[in-house]
Structure to design on (154 residues):
């Protein structure tokens, strides 16, 4: 079963690669990645980027219910992704210390660091689900494949 899920992410990566040929604009590329993931991954309730701006994480392109606009420094799951520079998988957000509930229905979350050309973290890709335990290491590996394509283009 894991191979099937990784194959799905590879297919998403291939589809995104074709779409990204149409523009070099970073915002348009992030928006396209978000739309693709949000509509192709089952059980995802929110998909988007938070980008570092002025020492805060500010919401960028996203799909789903309204988001928190600004995340105060070093609090919550998204900041953990920035501070640790690695994927953060939260099977139960209610058990995560300092979780910031932008949507009270969210039960699980995955955050992937988004890196710029110098390999520094410039933001995060955040996916939420209303299902507990929706995300795992296979999702982290698959999302890394997709996100790496975007990062090689910025």
């Amino acid at each position: 079963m894991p191979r099937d899920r990784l194959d799905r992410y590879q297919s998403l990566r291939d589809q995104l690669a074709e779409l990204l040929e149409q523009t070099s604009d970073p915002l348009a590329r992030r928006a396209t990645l978000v739309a693709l993931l949000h509509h192709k991954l089952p059980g995802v309730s929110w998909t988007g980027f938070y980008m570092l701006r002025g020492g805060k994480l500010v919401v960028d392109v996203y799909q789903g219910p309204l988001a928190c606009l600004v995340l105060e420094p070093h609090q919550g799951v998204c900041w953990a992704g920035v501070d640790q520079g690695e994927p953060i998988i939260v099977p139960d957000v209610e058990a995560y210390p300092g979780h910031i509930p932008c949507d009270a229905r969210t039960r699980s979350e995955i955050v992937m660091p988004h890196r710029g050309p110098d390999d520094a973290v410039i933001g995060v890709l955040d996916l939420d689900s209303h299902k507990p335990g929706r995300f795992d290491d296979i999702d982290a590996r698959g999302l890394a494949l997709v996100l790496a394509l975007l990062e090689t283009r910025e």
Remarks:
- The beta strands are 46-53, 56-63, 70-71, 88-90, 108-115, 121-129.
